[in-house]
Amino acid sequence: MKFTFPLAELLSSLGDCEVEGEWDGDISGISTLKDAQPGDLSFLGNSRYTQEVRSSAASVILLPKSFEGSPPDGQVYVRLKNPSFALGQFCGVLEQRFWPRPPVGIHPTAVIDRDAVVDDKATIGPYCLVSSGAQIGAGVVLTSHVSLGAHVVVGEGSRIMTHVTVGDFCEIGKNVFLNPGVVIGADGFGYETVNGVHEKVPQIGRVIIEDDVEVGANSAIDRARFSETRIGQGTKIDNLVQIGHNVRIGKGCLIVAQVGISGSTTIEDYVVIGGQTGIVGHITIGSGVRIGAQSGISKSIPPGHAVQGSPALDIRLFQRITALQRRLPDFFARFQRLEDSARDRVES
């Protein structure tokens, strides 16, 4: 995407930074160091790409304060504490410019139940449904085709994207972002087998999503069998994540794509769960735990541990085993030679 953004305005938006070099122009794009063209803004967010700074054609490069060297003519280095975060701040400025908040009000195709409460500063887009008893706070945006069930509460400043469904009695906190296709409060997966028949267990609980949570596209968070399924403040959930009934997730967790968390498990604060991890039900993952991608978690993990694998092992042991697995063909070849040598000696 191309745009025009004055360099002086960029520097102003970054705050505390050190500028070296000169360039007379406007920023017209954002790119990686390797692919950048004149007019582009780039950044060094990972030390493995340090060598690419020298050869980059970007006109402006965001760099850590520790970076040594001076820019060539016609290029500007901007040194700051965290280049990646600074780029994110700049992208936020662009987001507000190119995707401004839609005007407040209710679109004529939206369906609002007569006893729903919608704040005057909320935006209800095309073909949205707001059911009986729902409460929509100030600054909330329902983009289009959003369905809110009976007695749903949506807190101030939350943004709900197209084709999101929020089931009856669920609560969405302040400044929550729900990406397209998210389903909050569908029935949990609960059955009792009676005389060979899987009898459905009614799921009469709800989902509570605390403030500042983000949920990725097409993720599902099931309502509780009773009581609540809860997502803690500031937790970020990637696309295609399944969270079962009565799960409780603490604050500040990071849950990457295609994770599945079975019912009644507790995830404490600031846990990081790598992609495609499966977690059984009725266990506890302690605060600060880090789980590597594609892990299988079958038992509780104490706080502060790092694990990976299926079944999950301490991450250092997992790495040692992985290293040894790569050497197995050589081990088998050596064993075969020893076996052949022993056979020859016996036969002779």
From TrEMBL:
Keyword S-adenosyl-L-methionine on entry: no
Please state the Enzyme Commission number of this protein. 2.3.1.191
- A Pfam family that this protein carries is LpxD
Entry's Gene Ontology cellular component terms:
membrane
Q: In its keyword annotation, does this UniProt entry include Transferase?
A: yes
Q: Which InterPro entries match?
A: Hexapep (IPR001451), Hexapep_transf_CS (IPR018357), LpxD (IPR007691), Trimer_LpxA-like_sf (IPR011004), UDP_GlcNAc_AcTrfase_non-rep (IPR020573)
The parts of the chain that form a coiled coil are none
Q: What are the record keywords, sorted?
A: Acyltransferase, Lipid A biosynthesis, Lipid biosynthesis, Lipid metabolism, Repeat, Transferase
Record: active site: 245
GO-annotated biological processes: lipid A biosynthetic process
**According to its UniProt record, in which pathway does this protein act?**
Bacterial outer membrane biogenesis; LPS lipid A biosynthesis
A GO MF annotation of the entry reads: UDP-3-O-[(3R)-3-hydroxyacyl]-glucosamine N-acyltransferase activity
Q: Which catalysed reactions does the entry list for this protein?
A: a UDP-3-O-[(3R)-3-hydroxyacyl]-alpha-D-glucosamine + a (3R)-hydroxyacyl-[ACP] = a UDP-2-N,3-O-bis[(3R)-3-hydroxyacyl]-alpha-D-glucosamine + holo-[ACP] + H(+)
- State how it assembles: Homotrimer.
**Primary role:** Catalyzes the N-acylation of UDP-3-O-acylglucosamine using 3-hydroxyacyl-ACP as the acyl donor. Is involved in the biosynthesis of lipid A, a phosphorylated glycolipid that anchors the lipopolysaccharide to the outer membrane of the cell.
User: Its family?
Assistant: Belongs to the transferase hexapeptide repeat family. LpxD subfamily.
Q: What's the name of the protein?
A: UDP-3-O-acylglucosamine N-acyltransferase
Q: Which organism is it from?
A: Puniceicoccus vermicola
